[in-house]
Design goal:
By secondary structure, the protein is of the alpha/beta class. The protein has 17 helices and eleven strands. A hairpin with a 4-residue loop joins strand 10 and strand 11.
Length: 375
């Protein structure tokens, strides 16, 4: 980590927290990128002094370049600029936190550097998981997930990963990262249930975007928060887990866990289940991705089980939350259906936030998109 990090999507929730973690670890920030939030980006430039900054909006990039001309930072614009920042050679770790499909190109550009990729963007794996995994394998790129659930699974699989490393050292046959070891029976993805966990289908049909944005446990961007409310976030994570850990859809079980203390679990064929527990704070999985395999002191409050007193689990209601059911269908159908699911969801969430459709209008649009693929 001597040469520091690049953060793609530095003005978003994950990007801002990554900068906080990087500062606490004493890491140098080499490159940053954003869509068009140039006010915050200027503050970050003056504080962290990167060498290169990319702004997707080209007009905003030109304006920012003038405003920070006294800093010596080079500002580039457009999608090519995002890819240039992703491939910046001065960083050892590249954090991809660009929301939506706009993150696919920069993610692939980051992978091609052969540097560690701290992946905080679901959509590249959801829509192009086979290409992402294949490119990472060809380039020898290490992908460390930043999502709290996938970070938890990654941590639970530490022993399995050690066995793979030993096999490679001994020149024995070892499965590549996208092949599930035979000792894994299933992955258990935990979900908070969002703000509407106890509502009926009739009640859910009347909820507003303002209500949907009030997540009980996490502070996230608007799109991810709505996905959490519909449980689509968990559906996207199911597809992401398939590619990251080489499991089939039927090997991923979603369980509602309102306390958000157990971030995910892995059940093994011998009957053992390993879980990762911590207070809900994204700085912990971010730091783990930056320091892996080391564990360093962090600002995250330690877990006090005596204060928690109980951990509860429920089966998700697929009738009240059809987006999760649709994600399982897409996962079974394959990459084209997964890409269609993601596109339709991005469109539908934007329309819901604009109050053009109802809460269930989101799943209706996704279902129609999957029907067109099936036909």
């Amino acid at each position: 980590m001597e040469n520091g990090i690049t953060i793609l999507g530095s003005t978003g929730s994950i990007g801002r927290q990554t900068l906080e973690v990087a500062e606490s670890l004493g890491l140098k920030v080499r490159a940053l990128s954003a869509n068009n939030s140039t006010g915050l980006l200027e503050e970050q430039i003056r504080k962290y002094k990167p060498v290169l900054v990319a702004v997707y909006d080209e007009r905003a990039a030109l304006d920012l370049s003038k405003r920070v001309s006294d800093t010596g930072v080079r500002v580039v614009g457009g999608p090519e600029g995002q890819n240039e920042a992703a491939g910046h050679s001065g960083a050892d770790i590249i954090v991809t936190a660009i929301a939506g499909m706009a993150g696919l190109g920069p993610t692939l550009a980051a992978i091609r550097t052969g540097k560690r990729l701290a992946l905080a963007n679901k959509e590249p794996l959801v829509c192009a998981g086979e290409e992402v995994v294949r490119t990472a394998r060809e380039c020898g790129t290490e992908i460390i997930p930043v999502d709290s659930e996938h970070s938890a699974i990654f941590q639970c699989l530490a022993e399995v990963r050690l066995q793979k490393d030993e096999a490679r050292l001994q020149n024995l046959s070892a499965p590549h990262p996208a092949t599930a070891p035979p000792q894994i029976k299933k992955i258990i993805l935990t979900a908070s249930g969002g703000p509407f966990r106890e509502m009926s289908r009739a009640e859910l049909g009347k909820v507003t975007p303002e209500q949907a944005l009030l997540h009980p446990n996490w502070k996230m961007g608007k799109k991810v928060t709505i996905d959490s409310a519909t449980l689509m976030n968990k559906g996207l994570e199911l597809i992401e887990a398939m590619h990251l850990f080489g499991v089939a859809p039927q090997q991923v079980e979603v369980v509602i866990h309102p306390e958000s203390i157990i971030h995910s679990m892995v059940e093994f064929t011998d009957g053992s289940t390993i879980a990762q527990l911590s207070n809900p704070d994204m700085r912990l999985p971010i730091q783990y991705a930056l320091t892996y395999p080391e564990r360093r002191p962090s600002p995250v409050k330690p877990l006090d089980l005596l204060q928690i007193k109980q951990l509860t689990f429920e089966k998700p209601d697929l009738d009240a939350f059809p987006c999760l059911r649709l994600a399982y269908i897409a996962a079974e159908q394959g990459s084209e259906a997964c890409a269609a699911l993601n596109r339709a969801n991005e469109e539908a969430v934007a329309r819901f936030l604009n109050k053009e459709i109802s809460f269930y209008g989101i799943s209706d649009i996704i279902q129609e998109a999957l029907k067109s693929i099936k036909g």
